[in-house]
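By convention, each integer encodes one residue's backbone shape. The lines below illustrate.
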Amino acid sequence: MLAWMGTGSSNGAIVAGHHTGQAQMGTVELERAVASARALRREIRAGRFTGQTSGQAPGYVQANLVVVPREAAFDFLLFCQRNPKPCPLLEVVEAGATAPPRLAPGADLRTDLPRYRVFRDGVMSEERSEVRDLWRGDFVSFLLGCSFSFEQPLLAAGLEVRHLRCGCNVPMYRTSIPCRSAGPFSGPLVVSMRPFRPADALRATLVTGAFPEVHGAPIHQGEPAAIGIADLARPEYGDPVPIEAGELPVFWACGVTPQEALLRAKLPLAITHAPGHMFVSDLRESELHWFRESLR
């Protein structure tokens, strides 16, 4: 069963440990835990943390970022609704706003990710550490669930997460599975991969299936060629990891999928996170179930 606790305050902030009937988190523990996510964002904003975020601020939900002009926002929202496995919506931020009021009030989407990608006319033109000078009043920001958010539950279940052991980014691959298109947005599904022995792959499926807000259960395990992946040693994004004898590659839908769609949409300007360099929110992983229900 997915454990959860929390409620929303009147200003949209997430307040953990105050849901009636749920276990209470001690004040000192809560303050320390919330500070870990906020402290990481402060380090990122100051330029002192620039790496990928897997394993950082454990217990907090991480999110993919996609920023598009308002004229393209409805079509991208429709793309997310038609492709909920790679694009599970956590929050859509009003045009021009820089803070997500539900996920992290007071954060700044222009500065609080370690690395950004800038897309111009269908080309990924640059990566940079902040995007304040590019920000426009018509930018609509989308925050999508990230699989880094189910890695702590995997570890808690006694399962190894290989890229964490290796100290690298998760490997991500372009597949031959097409997404459902919406307006100018189309393209292939991108997946992340974590290897497990068969029995552990089943356990990993059960653990991650409890978290549909961050991609949920895997979409494939076993033969990579069945989903159009030619070489596991050469991921399109992230870093390769070793697969040991007797292990299966297990594949989850990935929030880098919209970046493939942006290459085809050819918008004059769009911004995303760099793969693996996520937005770390104030929402606890244990609050995800409540968070989903509160949006209905």
About this structure: DSSP finds seven helices and 13 strands in the chain. Confidence is low (pLDDT under 50) at residues 1-35. Residues 172 and 237 are 5 Å apart (CA to CA).
